[in-house]
Amino acid sequence: MSTTLDGRIALPADEAIVLHRSYWQATLHFCRREPLGAVGAVLVLIIAITGLSAELIAPYSPTANDFAAMTEAPSWTHWLGTDQFGRDLLSRIIYGARTALIVGLTSAIVGGFAGLVLGVASAYFGGRLDLVFQRIFDVVMAFPLIIMALAVVAIFGTGVHNVIVAITIPLIPRCARVVRSSALAIREIPYVDAARACGYSHSRIILRHMVPNVMAPFLIMLTAFVGQAILAEASLSYLGLGVQEPTPAWGLMLQGGAEEYASTAPWIAIFPGLAIALTVFGVSLFGDALRDVLDPKLRER
Amino acid sequence: MRSALLAACIGAVLATGPAAADTGETMPKRGGTLTYMIPADAPPSLDGHREGTFAMLHALAPFYSVLMRVNPENPSDTTQFVCDLCTAIPKPTDDGKTYTFKIRTGVKFHDGSPLTAADVAASWHKIIFPPPGVLSARQDWWSVVDSVEAPDTTTVVFRLKFATTTFLPSLADPFAFIYSKAILDKDVRWYEQHVMGSGPFKFVALDIGQSMKGERNPDYYHKGKPYLDGFIGIFADKQVVRVEAIHSGRAAMEFRGLPPSAINDLQRELGDKVKVQTHDWNCGNVVTPNQRRKPFDDVRVRRALLLAVDQWNGAPALSKIANVRTVGGIVFPGSPLAATKEELQKLAGFWPDIEKSRAEARRLLKEAGQENLQLELLNRNVDQPYKYVGTWLVDQWSKIGVRATQRVQPTGPWLQAMRTGDFDVVVEANCNSVVNPVLDTHKYLPRVRSPVNYGGYNDPELIEIYEKMLSEGDFDRQRALMRQYEARIIDTMADEFPMLWWYRMIPERSFVHGWKIGPSHFINQDLSNIWLDEGQNG
Amino acid sequence: MYQYIAKRVLLVFPTLIGAAALVFILMRLIPGDICLVRLGSGGGSFDPHAIDLCHAEIGLDRPLIVQFLSFVWGFFSFDFGVSMWSGKPVSLEILTRLPISLEIALLATVIAILIAVPLGTISALKQNTWIDVVVRTLAIGGIATPSFWLGIISIMFVLDITNAISGTPWMPPIDYVPIWRDPIRNLSMAFLPAITVGYRYAAVSMRMTRSAMLEVLREDYIRTARAKGLIEKIVINRHALKNALLPVVTVIGIEFAFLIGGLVVTEQVFNLNGIGRLFVQAVQNQDYTLTQALVMLTVAIFVFSNLIVDLMYAWLDPRIRFA
User: Fold this and answer.
1) Nearest CA in chain A to C248
2) Which of A241, A246, A260 sits opposite B394 (nearest CB)?
3) Buried residues in B445-481 as b, exposed as e (16+ CB within 10 A)
4) pLDDT grade, residue B127 (50/70/90)?
5) CB of A266 within 8 Å of any CB in chain C?
């Protein structure tokens, strides 16, 4: 990184070096090059560990009602206070991290991979298949994410599984779109035709040649999806159509009680919202940095 | 209070001066505009006969007259009815099968045309015998009616197929607006999109999805009323918005009922600038297991679920966060037909000793081979109090080792799941307007008799008890039959469990006077008795 | 060129018809229907016979294919029918709610542009300095914060602050007055929602401005301009910003279409009688005609803004139109 203006021009060489270093060195390099990204990664890591070891670190059960301790302010016994059922907010937020990560990761990964397959297939085979896929993507993408998810949840019902389905479906075409346009560029390169001429199978060509070449935009999309999915889950739950009581989930914690008690017990509204914002913030920071490292030319669209 | 009440009755009957109807504290002042919140989105159509939502009444009741109604000066009495358009509540003749009403003279519709018995009969005819293709939401209430006629301009006669004590209270249905016969004859669906009544207020404007505005009807037949120059009702289904509106003075009150947290907030913030009226509510949650699904076809399992819930200790705790309060059976606790606490405590689920109750629940589950019972509780996407009750139930059941999850659905899918039997156990509600216990408990009859029963059971014996109760004229015998009916539903069969009656808490800014709370958010909504003290506009 | 335009315009139709089919099917897959909601939501009893009548009344007893064809035909002939819930024309229902939604969307856009363009530009110019870090953090913060939460917190904040200052709490008006009738009342209702929506919107646009600027700054003509010794300010204003703005405008255009969807949650928080809240009501009431019309409106805005963007690019970049 020589100057602010052409810092990125040196990148291709940079990248080559990154690939040959050990993981440790690569990580170090990443941190030095993208300090913001490193902060994001650390945030995500902390939240992931919290979610995974919820049973070990949560001081109380996330669902047990305690009518003797309703809407208590933060104190040494309840660090973040309690909600209207007397449930410990810290414990619910800790368990809520798990729900957020399950919804975020599953939706992003399933939606991402389905999009990857469809996008690459669409680009590789082209012709009528491509045309049909394109129209379907257009249709699904024309629906704003939250509206699509609302409809899907209304059909299949609420709860974690259905929320994941509802968020995954609209993510697929968004990923497929981007993957397809990157894959199209590769499709035009002669070596694909050469591989075909050598008698390699479609699946081999797709897996060995096309997929690795669209990995950069794919990974970037994937991290963006995690954040979007967590936010979408929060919005759905806020509208009462997402994860349901008594499952601890951040968006759900903001629904109902949070607003009702906003003036007497503001902690019920503040902490879960902060948890959402921090998590998505971490994921986005990391995703941004990843984008800068992997593909400086890629535009966010 | 007593004398005021008496005065009110006489006032209604003889149409004396305005002072008669007041509470006696101070003379009501005239003038001012009341701004209040309507806790719902706008009603579907403007025709009360075809709708069932309270938003309809909160927005439209001020424009219309009805035949008779719950006493607006004492709505909390569940047995007291007074005339609006009639001149006296009739005693039935012909062995209780004929009711003859005399209609007030000199009443005018807002368009200036006179209101006669023909209009009253035509409106009731539309409600009870709607022409083909016209919807009447509560038609089955009056299946006992044989004919409605207006032999002359001041008389309306209802003839019944058989005598029943449920008939007279059912005529106080607040949705039964009196329409103009001339208009109905021209277009029976005209009232779906237009307003033209004879009530205390005249229609001014409906801002779609936002507000309803009305102004004083100078020709109102209850002399001196209404006191207000006009009103503005603002639709807002979001509770926080309503509470903050009252808090910041953008609105003076709302009429449905707010949960305790909101009431406490308002009282703490506003001090003596706000008054709160409270009342038991003729609405309660009901928990229904689906007997078409295993293992809920087993009465032991159903009983265990009922026995696990600690209603006596749950009610006071929940009443701090939700608008529930009173433990009761199937009859509205304020009614003379309701079970007393002693009677109630003999029924499963109401035993005074919760430990004994839960021990029995565990024993029953073991006996039924369902110690590791898991179930899905279907619930409605409504916070107060459905979801609070649901969350509490899940916790209660966990105490006998039952693992329950909740499936919360918006109203449409929730109703559909109940109708198609796609649930294990459901949280529903029994919510009625005018307290009329025998009709109100019709809901517990098996589906063959009650289309809104989703328990999936059939029980000829239960139907038999109900039939007897319906045509029983003697109060004590009717009450005994009601206990039998209740015990069979709850204790013997564990078909459905009444799960806490709701509690109405209405905040009003202290400059609002004259309105009195009753057991239902459907009744006493014509705003004619409300007056403002400070001439403050919301 | 004409061939490309014709082809691109024709492609709009399958998307619209596909979207129509999708929303039609989705709505009918939701269990229950409007008649149930209407008659059963009060919790009291209702007559099952009334349900059949209600179905007949609003045409739900017609064969599905007939319902679908009349919906699609209605859409293309601009006759959206009547709302199943209120019996009023759908166009009236939507037009009544459109002003407040549009106003907030426009205000949010203005706020977004005012924040995004200068900050994004500075951030790009000072890439990897502390200014850049702060701006990017702000931007990502905007993307990460759920706007409904921001709404809840801001209402809480305003009430508490006004209460502390004047002793009486103040909240924005809850009934809409058109701006030409009472601008102060109107704006005091719109500014909070516009800010909460606008922050997120600004965040997205800010990131776009930054990366577009970075891209442009590397182009040859900027280097040439610099090499010629032109003053930095002129280089930025005349050359760089002008060229970087096209993608920014694109993003703002496309985001505007999405904003309508984003208003769904925000209008709930602020109890605004706009089309986002109308949408939630329509879905909850299972009002097929109204939901279909609203979805088609959003889809149409999205499809046509994409079309315009594509045509604009084609006009600017000859390679596309001949491809």
Assistant:
1) A301
2) A246
3) bbbeebbbbbbbbebeebbebbeebbebeeeeebbeb
4) very high
5) yes
CB contact under 8 A, A269 and C152: yes
How many angstroms separate the Cα of B393 from the Cα of each of A176, B347, B389, B403, B500?
A: 44, 19, 6, 11, 11
Q: Chains with 3 or more CB pairs closer than 8 angstroms to B? A: A, C
CA-based nearest residue in chain C for residue A263: C156
Identify whether the C-beta of residue B69 lies closer than 8 Å to the C-beta of residue B53.
no
Q: Which of C133, C217, C258 sits opposite A36 (nearest CB)?
A: C133
Subunit contact A245:B392, Cβ cutoff 8 A: no
Smallest CA–CA distance from A6 into chain C, residue: C218
Contact C57, B63 (CB under 8 A): no
Phi, psi of B277, deg, nearest 5:
-110, 140
Which residues make beta-bridge pairs with B93?
B98
Measured between CA atoms, the residue of chain C closest to residue A282 is C144
CB contact under 8 A, A260 and B240: yes
Q: Is the ipTM of this complex over 0.90?
A: no
How far apart CA C20 and CA C289 sit, in angstroms, is 11
Are B136 and C50 in contact, with CB atoms under 8 Å apart? yes
Rounded mean pLDDT, B14-37: 65
Size of the B and C interface in Cβ pairs below 8 Å: 157
| One-letter-per-residue 3-state SS of C226-274 | HHCCCCHHHHHHHHHHHHHHHHHHHHHHHHHHHHHHHHHHHHHHHCCCC
Q: Is A131 on the interface with C (CB under 8 A)?
A: no
Q: Is A159 on the interface with B (CB under 8 A)?
A: yes
Q: Which of B133, B236, B431 sits opposite C43 (nearest CB)?
A: B431
Residue located via tokens 């109090």: B385
The 10s digit of each residue's pLDDT in C70-123 is 888 888 888 888 888 888 899 998 998 888 888 988 898 888 889 888 898 888
In whole angstroms, how far apart are CA C169 and each of B240, B535, C148, C159, C163? 14, 21, 21, 5, 4
Q: Do A246 and B265 touch (CB under 8 A)?
A: no
B451:C46 CB<8 A? yes
pLDDT at B276: 95
Query: Could you tell me the domains of chain A?
Result: 34-62+81-294 (1.10.3720.10)
Q: A263 vs B239: CB contact, 8 Å cut-off?
A: no
Q: Which two tokens mark C30?
A: 């939701």
Helix, strand, coil shares of chain B as percentages rounded to 5?
35, 20, 45
Per-domain boundaries in chain B: 280-502
Q: Is C233 exposed, middle or buried (0-12, 13-18, 19+ CB in 10 A)?
A: exposed
Q: Which residues are CB-neighbours of B404 under 8 A, at least 6 positions away?
A: B374, B375, B376, B377, B393, B394, B397, B398, B425
- State the nearest Cα–Cα gap between B298 and chain A, in angstroms: 27
Q: Residue C313 carries which side chain, given as an amino acid letter?
A: Y
Report the predicted TM-score, pTM, of the whole model to 2 decimal places: 0.82
**Does position A14 have pLDDT exceeding 60, yes or no?**
no
Residue whose pair of structure tokens reads 């059912």 in the numeric block:
B170
pLDDT band for A95, please (50, 70, 90 cuts). Answer: very high
Mean pLDDT in residue range B95-124: 95
Residue partners of A53: CB distance under 8 A and separation at least 6:
none
In chain C, the domains with their CATH numbers are: 2-76 (no CATH), 94-321 (1.10.3720.10)
Q: Where are the beta strands (DSSP E) in B245-373?
A: 253-254, 274-289, 324-326
Alpha carbon of A107: minimum distance to chain C alpha carbons (Å): 17
**Beta-strand relationship, B81-83 and B68-70:** antiparallel
Residue B16 Ramachandran class (φ > 0 left, ψ -120 to 50 alpha, else beta): beta
Question: Which CATH number is correct for B280-502, 3.10.105.10, 1.10.3720.10, 3.40.50.300, 3.30.70.141?
Answer: 3.10.105.10
